[in-house]
Amino acid sequence: MEDVARSRAFYVAAFDWAVRVDVGVYVELEAPGGFHVGLYDRRGYAKNTGRLPVAVPADAVAPGELYLRVDDVPAAAARLERAGGRVLSPAALRPWGDEVAYLADPDGHVLALSRPTGPVAD
Fold first, then answer.
1. How many angstroms separate the Cα of 4 from the Cα of each of 44, 78, 82, 92, 107?
2. N or C, fewer C-beta in 10 Å, the chain?
3. Alpha-carbon gap, residue 78 to 82, rounded angstroms
4. Which residues pair with 74 in a beta bridge?
5. Which numeric CATH code is attached to 1-53?
6. DSSP 8-state symbol, 3
7. Which CA distances in Å does 74 have to 8, 83, 110, 113?
8. What's the pTM value of the predicted model, to 2 decimals?
């Protein structure tokens, strides 16, 4: 993350996840079901891994995604957009049978908001 405080504010506003740890360079959020998400300053993260993660340019996205199940895709997408997310692809029925919207967080990480709609299409 380029700005951990900004990322913390985004994820709390977007998902209402509880903050469990906040030490400035690292924030840990608790999602439903006890799953934890860590947000780490990229330079601090480099100290642990020995590699500096690349900064994602403002108009680009990172090469991975968090695929998250939600009850209402358009409402969740609107909440992320209000929190500062960038819409990449609006909510639509996808060939694999899910309704999915794609957004990017302030650091360019892709968030796929999904809801199963039925059997997988051929």
1. 11, 22, 18, 31, 10
2. C
3. 6
4. none
5. 3.30.720.120
6. -
7. 22, 14, 16, 9
8. 0.89
Residue 89 contacts residue 111 (beta carbons within 8 Å): no
Sequence spans of domains, the chain: 1-53, 62-122
Q: Which amino acid is at 31?
A: A
Q: How far apart are CA 28 and CA 14, in angstroms?
A: 15
pLDDT of residue 106: 94
What band does 120 get if pLDDT is binned at 50, 70 and 90?
Answer: low
Query: Which CATH class for the 62-122 domain?
Result: alpha beta
Please provide the size of the chain in residues.
122
User: 1-53 with 62-122: one CATH topology?
Assistant: yes
